[in-house]
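Example S7 (structure tokens).
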């Protein structure tokens, strides 16, 4: 029987934060104790347990990232350069754990185009994610977030097969065709295509014309059938880049329950009216603005329009985003929930993951925040009761430089919403 006693840290639960300790037995959180309770029980506890002293550190739940594109970037760091998927999945694990992510929903795009986002390559990536997720040697929880491009008619059979195999944990419906959503002008769309597909000149013009033709041939019934199939297999479905309240309501009628990256206030503010989850990007929070001049993620979160933060294209943003929001006045338990409990609820895994509560799986982080060297640093990461990540003791316990966020003490982080 594995017994671990983590003591003296600032524990962040869904409702409050306090100095205390917790007991992990056989991969689950057995007890959570406040500081005043430790005096009588601590001597007995430490006799037969592995002990970790988290004094000067936060203890927070492992982060649940519903949308991250980092894996694709590791598989294909440059045009025409592809690394093996199993290799990419292995090397990304320490990177994700150092970012605080213990449950990763890898975004894998099925666009039907040649390259990493082809149906064939998407299938192989999905297969490797499933294989590693079932392996006893995995360091974190891997899931497939399948991103389906509406014009990819030829990919529907493959995607349906993956759903029926049980390999898909989240499905999102995307439409990146010309002059739709955030690409309302041809120049904006050309920029997106050049950046994403790395083509230009005559090849770019031909690509755009093909996409227009494909968009005209989209079958609405095929989309609805795919959503129904996902629902049948209890897979949550998300929309992508909604730009109007009407679009949000139409998607809800289709069975969509998560809105990723609403583009403006109109779309974002309507999410609460229809009671669906809204996702914004950690990089947007970190920088204080959208690099594409869309909705500010900080504004969306502080106004209560959205309730989930994902890493999007930058895993390192997620943990820092939490503390930035706490610095700006959002209670720390609520800020932490944006990247842990709320996404876990959105995909139906909150009964076992997403928060520090008795009986849940012990996915947790030990985080130091040295005010002289912002941002926060993950000292250790535990997944299912195992310490799967740690860094040198040189980073641990410079207590005079550490702080906790209390109602009467905040330290301003880098990044400002006024940028």
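Recovered sequence:
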């Amino acid at each position: 029987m594995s017994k671990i006693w983590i003591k003296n840290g600032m524990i962040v639960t869904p409702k409050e934060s306090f100095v205390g300790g917790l007991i992990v037995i056989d991969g689950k959180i057995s007890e959570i104790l406040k500081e005043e309770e430790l005096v009588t029980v601590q001597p007995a506890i430490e006799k037969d347990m592995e002990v970790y002293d988290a004094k000067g550190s936060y203890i927070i739940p492992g982060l649940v990232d519903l949308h991250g594109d980092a894996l694709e970037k590791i598989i294909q760091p440059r045009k025409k350069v592809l690394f093996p998927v199993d290799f990419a999945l292995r090397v990304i694990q320490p990177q994700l754990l150092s970012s605080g992510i213990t449950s990763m929903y890898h975004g894998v795009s099925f666009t039907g185009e040649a390259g990493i986002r082809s149906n064939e390559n998407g299938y192989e990536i999905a297969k490797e994610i499933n294989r590693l997720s079932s392996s006893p040697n995995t360091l974190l929880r891997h899931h497939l977030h399948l991103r389906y491009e509406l014009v990819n008619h030829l990919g529907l059979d493959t995607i349906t097969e993956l759903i029926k195999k049980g390999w898909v944990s989240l499905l999102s419906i995307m439409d990146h065709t010309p002059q739709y959503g955030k690409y309302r002008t041809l120049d904006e769309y050309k920029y997106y295509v050049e950046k994403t597909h790395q083509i230009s000149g005559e090849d770019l013009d031909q690509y755009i014309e093909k996409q227009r033709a494909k968009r005209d041939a989209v079958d609405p019934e095929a989309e609805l059938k795919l959503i129904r199939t996902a629902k049948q297999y209890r897979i949550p479905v998300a929309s992508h880049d909604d730009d109007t309240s009407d679009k949000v309501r139409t998607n809800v009628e289709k069975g969509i329950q998560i809105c990723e990256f609403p583009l403006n206030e109109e779309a974002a503010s309507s999410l609460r009216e229809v009671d669906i989850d809204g996702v914004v990007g950690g990089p947007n929070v970190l920088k204080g603005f959208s690099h594409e001049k869309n909705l500010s993620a900080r504004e969306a979160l502080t106004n209560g329009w959205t309730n989930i933060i994902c890493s999007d294209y930058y895993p390192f943003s997620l943990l820092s985003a939490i503390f930035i929001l706490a610095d700006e006045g959002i209670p720390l338990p609520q800020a932490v929930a944006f990247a842990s409990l709320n996404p876990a609820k959105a995909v139906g895994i909150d009964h076992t993951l997403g928060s520090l509560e008795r009986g849940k799986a012990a996915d947790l982080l030990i985080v130091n925040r040295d005010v002289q060297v912002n941002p926060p640093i993950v000292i250790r990461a535990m997944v299912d009761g195992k310490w799967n990540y740690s860094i040198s003791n040189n980073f641990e316990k410079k207590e005079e430089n550490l702080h906790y966020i209390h109602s009467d003490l905040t330290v301003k982080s880098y990044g400002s919403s006024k940028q």
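Notes on this example. The two ends are 52 Å apart (CA to CA).
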